[in-house]
Amino acid sequence: MSNSKKTLPPDSINNPTRRSFLTKGALLATGGVMSLTMAPTQAAPVTINVPETVTGGRTRFHQIYDVIVVGSGFAGLAAALEAKSHGLSVLVIEKMAVFGGNSTINGGAFAVAGSPQQKEAGIQDSPELMYQDMLKAGRGLNHRDILHVLVNGTQEAYEFTLKHGVRYKPFVQHFGGHSVPRTLQTVESSGAGIIMPMRQSAQKLGVIFKSRCKFESFIQDNQQTVVGLEVKENYYFPDENSGLVKNYGARYGVIMCSGGFSNDLRFRMIQDPQLVSDLDTTNHQGATAEGILAMLKIGATPVQLDLIQLGPWSSPDEKGFGNVSQFNTIAGYPMGIMVDARTGKRFTNELADRKAREDAILVQRDEQGKPVYPICFTNKEGAKNAQSLPAALKYQVAWQFDTLKQLADHFALPYENLQKEVDEYNTAVANGSGDRLGKDVSRAISLAEGPYFAVRVWPKVHYTMGGVQINPNAQVLNSLTGNPIQGLYAAGEVTGGPHGASRLGSCAVADGLVLGRIAGAHVATQTANPLFSTSDSDNA
Amino acid sequence: MSIYQRIAVIFVALFSLSVWAQNDKPTADDAKAFQQKLSDITIKPYHQPLAATGRDASCQLCHGAKTPTTPANDSNCLTCHGSLDQIAAMTEPKSKEGHPEPNPHNSIHYGKDVPCSTCHSEHKPSQVYCNSCHLFKYPNMKP
Ligand SMILES: Cc1cc2nc3c(=O)[nH]c(=O)nc-3n(C[C@H](O)[C@H](O)[C@H](O)COP(=O)(O)OP(=O)(O)OC[C@H]3O[C@@H](n4cnc5c(N)ncnc54)[C@H](O)[C@@H]3O)c2cc1C
Fold first, then answer.
1. Which positions make up the signal peptide (chain B) (predicted)?
2. Which residue(s) pair with A453 in the sheet?
3. How confident is the model at residue B113 (pLDDT cuts 50, 70, 90)?
4. What are residue A455's DSSP bridge partners?
């Protein structure tokens, strides 16, 4: 590959004659009438000489922006909004037909250290306490620099979401592994309550969104600076034969917010061979690894890719996250108990962190190694905040019983054991402490009175703690030098580090929003790449 | 405009397009292979009346002038089926009682932004995208 090909001098890039010629040419090539209607969104491509690179010298860029964000979840939208607010032109690409990735199917639970809701409930909290909790759950494997950035940014990120129209329930929740209740939840009980208003806001501010547009690879110059992307427009997931290859240029940088890889069976099994196909996942179909692989290919540093978290609250009776997961986190675990289906006895602290619970549940197997699904239940009082319960009952993935005896009979549990277990638990609840399995029962309720609501439990692949390494500016670091790969940022689940061995519930929203904002703000401190030193306005 | 008027408008547009297309002079073999391919393609019963004027024209009805290698553009679906708001209104549950199935055309996760072809297919079975996580039952959705 060489530099010697004929190239355009920079100022001819915007030469009007050339532009109109190319536009006509493009119309002829694609066959006419339909393209006419698309003309306003498809301006002339420009061919720029990218100094000798892995991708070749002369590169034709079909579109050029200041910043390109890959992925439309929490991290992507936070980055886009932030970059836009600094006056940059921003494109967000999304390979799926719909926007929002895991973020929009997410439970909408957001850990904020020091929220007004906590103050109102008289709960003392601080970023330092959140740091300690996450470090403990992470078994000390957390990258502390990023963890610091994360916990220090939650309050501001919370306010940022309010500014963009997000609404939260007026109370805080206590999620497993957190030492105090610090989890806020959107009124929709879904991350959609964050994604939808943020996307509307971004659109109003002029951020450009393209769905069915798949990131394929990076375009770098001879300094290894990322100057753009190769994408496939009109891509129909998961059809790899679909789509039209295009090159997009990014004057300031590219921000990879392509999420985790829980739904990438091949890659997740390479990293953790136990996560075979019969373990379901809570993730959307697009949670695959190509984004992270492309970053590794250009030198990014892999972090803890085999640390993959299972959600310990999901149900084998439904697909994905379903309705049971939220019932368990809001009601079943804090307000009820989980028992071994053979003995009727509890076997784990229901409010332990995810890893502890996941490990305890996964060993519930018979002699043949087949799962013996544990039963989790609470009573009516305990279930009063569980919005997903009516749906769970409707689809028969949760069941209602008047008495413990009926519950025991339904699941063929030894009733006497169960009654004894409940009595013992109730005593601890009455005392406010002293639970046999070390559960914090200070906010728990007695299970003496029915009716009861019960579900079956089995973990699902939920979150990939590992990813690429970033620095506190969300710049992706080169594995050989430890220095930032110029022009490349990443945020959200595609990065590794802050969560260590196990992420605490509601800390992924915090991660995506906080680090996404940092990426968007930092890219705005860069200077525009002189390769694109044209006055060409953003043409999409 | 009534739905019939709309269809009529489309047919007029299609007619002019097919005249234009004839200038390409495909060979007889190409034409035969093309016809064969077309007759192998499933058209759902409720769309078959639209194919009455000849199947090659009906491709363009949904796919526009582009060679149909990708699902139809939403705007072509909406030409006959109404606006996104109208479609969403049609599938709004009548009452919130008895925990009805949520409105697939105005969902909590995606609002009215889901492209038609995410769930609806003409040449293969349709699939409810929501049901990768949920167990919704939409008995009125044509398979
Ligand atoms: C069901 C569920 C419930 C959850 N609940 C909670 C909760 O309540 N609280 C919490 O803190 N965490 C929760 N999590 C975890 C959390 O939602 C995710 O970790 C978070 O949404 C990740 O955000 P992100 O922006 O990094 O990635 P995502 O939101 O997944 O976005 C990544 C996007 O990038 C797109 N993409 C990927 N590759 C490409 C490509 N090549 N080209 C173009 N686009 C691409 C994907 O399609 C996707 O839309 C939940 C997760 C799930 C699955």
1. 1-21
2. A378, A400
3. very high
4. A376, A398
